[in-house]
Amino acid sequence: MASTNLLGFDYGEKTIGVAVGNTGSSQAHPLTTVRVIRGQPDWDTVTRLIEEWNPVALVVGLPINMEGNDNPVTPRARKFGNRLNGRYNLPVHMVDERLTTRDARTELYNAGVAEKRHKPVLDKLAAQSILQTYLSEQVEPKIESD
Asked: Model's pTM, two decimal places?
C-alpha cells in the first residue's frame, strides 16, 4: 500500500494548530498554526496547506472533558470538521484530544523552552499529538503464529 499524507488540526477559537503525517512512516510532525479571525478560520491558509500536502484525509481533535462529555468548544470543533469536509470533500476523522495540550506543554517544559515562548508552538504540537494518536490507532497489530 502506498503511503499517503494526512493533516491534523487542533481547533481553537483564536488559532488552529496543524500537523502533517504520513501513513508510510506512521509519524506526525508539527507544521504551523492558522489564525481564527472573528470566528472564521483563515480558509486561504487551510486551502494552501491542503494543496501543498495533498492529504487523503483530515483529522480533527475532539475536545471533550475527562468524563467523556462535550465541553463548550466541542460543538465548534465538530462544526469545523464538517466545514473541512464540505469545502475539501475529504474524509474527516474526529479524535479524542483529551490531554494533548497538557502533553505538548510538558514536552516544551522538558525541552527547556521558556513558558512565554510556548503559545506559538503549543497548538501545532497538540495537532501533532492528535494526528499521531490517529496514525498509531491505524497500525494493525502483528499477530504471531505458532
From this structure: 0.82
